[in-house]
Amino acid sequence: MIISVVVLLEALALLGAAAWYAFELLSGAPVLTFWGAVFTLGLLLAFSVWLFAVGHFLFRGYRWTRAAALVAQLFVLTIGFPTMTGGLVWQGLAMLLPALAAIVFLFQKDVVAYASRTGGTSAAL
User: Fold this and answer.
1) Distance (Å, rounded) from C-alpha 46 to C-alpha 72?
2) Which parts of 1-125 fold into alpha helices (H)?
3) Does residue 39 carry a pLDDT above 90?
4) 81 falls in which pLDDT band (50, 70, 90)?
């Protein structure tokens, strides 16, 4: 399913951003507070793990993943739009286009029908 691939690619990109942030932190880049930077790194890693889980269970057809994926895409939009209008057009578009595509896919009938499982082996009513 295309939407799960988009979510998994977003999780990989976020994991890459976390790795870059950790490298910068360990190489002595100036930060306002060290523990604030560590907390930010923890949030990046946690959100990446969460997106991996959402992508995995979305591929398997679980119902709750549609809401989780939608919220994640809305967060990406809130970061991508100011990024694009702030002068980083390509980086902003790299965030906005997959998020918009994922939102469109989330509301298609076949995705809604596929993602109707609640956790058992049979489809939900």
Assistant:
1) 13
2) 2-26, 34-60, 64-85, 89-106, 109-114
3) yes
4) very high
